[in-house]
Amino acid sequence: MPALSFLGMCVSKSAAGDAAAAGPNDTPHHTLLSSLKMSGFRTLEQCAFHPASSTRAFAIINQQNTTSPNSVPLTGNDTNIKSVLLKGIKDLATSATWMRLPANSTSTTTNEQAEALSTRLDEVDTALEHRGLRRGVVTELCGPSACYKTQICLNACVSALAQPTGDVVYVDTSRGCSAQRLRDLVKGAGVAEGELARVSVARPADVIEVLRLLDDVVEHKRELALLVVDSAACVLAPIVGASTPQAAALVQAVGLRLRRAAHETGAAVVVTNHAVRGPAASRHGGDAPLVAALGQAWLSAPHTRVMLTLDSATNALKARATVL
């Protein structure tokens, strides 16, 4: 990407030729981040939702910090500048080292070696490599409706509460977490009802509230056993349908937050997602395979994807796990 031009509203001609050889703290990405943070933009999604404001903020800060007589403003209409800004935000979401975790990164806390949380369904536990939901990684439960996704999340809550320590955070975007249902499951498992005090349920209205919640989870770093987001599709599917750069940046931001939460808290992170039909397996007909919803921007969010389906003849649950 050309030096300082992808977001800079005011660039130094003399510095432009040196950007390719600059260190990680001197890159255009670093300049962008520093300037936007000084203007109150703390997250990529804030920039994505307010492209005009973040563009103006970057311009003002950059002009204030520029002392070179060779600095000149970029030319171009406002629409083009916004387009370039959003492309830069998308690039940051996928390539900036300050936001990325290693692909197979897991927590180094003592929770890493702890027992996996059982889903209390043999079909699912058997499909998972560790016979349960592994701590320190993101597990996606993917499937059509009525495939026990919410039930598995509630079962995981019971497994977490059956252990002596560790809180549960349940981000209930689908409004499927029933207090009475969870209370009945806890009672049936022989867990003291008082352990329900360790469960916090949040019902965010949109993706921005989800991102704030995930940031809060990491910031407080309390002793967390399980983080559930049920479901990602409820807040992201309407955005993905817009097919805009902002949508891709937001979807990637949620995925990065989930991985970060797993990495820094050592909790088992579970997220549910819808399944859609992919391209046909052949030109000769036949059912197209089920694939995870939310598009390409979401594919790398989980460490493990569990595809849930129901047998057409027996209606029995089937689970297939894939390590990504």
Automatic annotation (TrEMBL):
<dbReference type="GO" id="GO:0005524">
    <property type="term" value="F:ATP binding"/>
</dbReference>
<dbReference type="GO" id="GO:0003697">
    <property type="term" value="F:single-stranded DNA binding"/>
</dbReference>
<dbReference type="GO" id="GO:0000723">
    <property type="term" value="P:telomere maintenance"/>
</dbReference>
<dbReference type="GO" id="GO:0000400">
    <property type="term" value="F:four-way junction DNA binding"/>
</dbReference>
<dbReference type="Pfam" id="PF08423">
    <property type="entry name" value="Rad51"/>
</dbReference>
<dbReference type="InterPro" id="IPR051988">
    <property type="entry name" value="HRR_RAD51_Paralog"/>
</dbReference>
<feature type="domain" description="RecA family profile 1">
    <location>
        <begin position="113"/>
        <end position="275"/>
    </location>
</feature>
<dbReference type="GO" id="GO:0005657">
    <property type="term" value="C:replication fork"/>
</dbReference>
<dbReference type="GO" id="GO:0140664">
    <property type="term" value="F:ATP-dependent DNA damage sensor activity"/>
</dbReference>
<dbReference type="GO" id="GO:0007131">
    <property type="term" value="P:reciprocal meiotic recombination"/>
</dbReference>
<keyword id="KW-0539">Nucleus</keyword>
<dbReference type="InterPro" id="IPR027417">
    <property type="entry name" value="P-loop_NTPase"/>
</dbReference>
<protein>
    <recommendedName>
        <fullName>RecA family profile 1 domain-containing protein</fullName>
    </recommendedName>
</protein>
<dbReference type="InterPro" id="IPR020588">
    <property type="entry name" value="RecA_ATP-bd"/>
</dbReference>
<dbReference type="GO" id="GO:0005815">
    <property type="term" value="C:microtubule organizing center"/>
</dbReference>
<dbReference type="GO" id="GO:0000724">
    <property type="term" value="P:double-strand break repair via homologous recombination"/>
</dbReference>
<dbReference type="InterPro" id="IPR013632">
    <property type="entry name" value="Rad51_C"/>
</dbReference>
<dbReference type="GO" id="GO:0042148">
    <property type="term" value="P:DNA strand invasion"/>
</dbReference>
<dbReference type="GO" id="GO:0033063">
    <property type="term" value="C:Rad51B-Rad51C-Rad51D-XRCC2 complex"/>
</dbReference>
